[in-house]
Amino acid sequence: MKINFLQKIDNRIGKEGMTLIMSNIVEMVNIKGGVRR
């Protein structure tokens, strides 16, 4: 869905920054999931 957006971020920040962003997204999703449950 947001593949182009992620690719642009990957080009600017690099793989290390990408992993940090992905981990932050995962944490946010887990928090939202926990609140809903």
UniProtKB/TrEMBL annotation:
It comes from the Bacteria. This is Uncharacterized protein. The lineage of its organism: Bacteria, Bacillati, Bacillota, Bacilli, Bacillales.
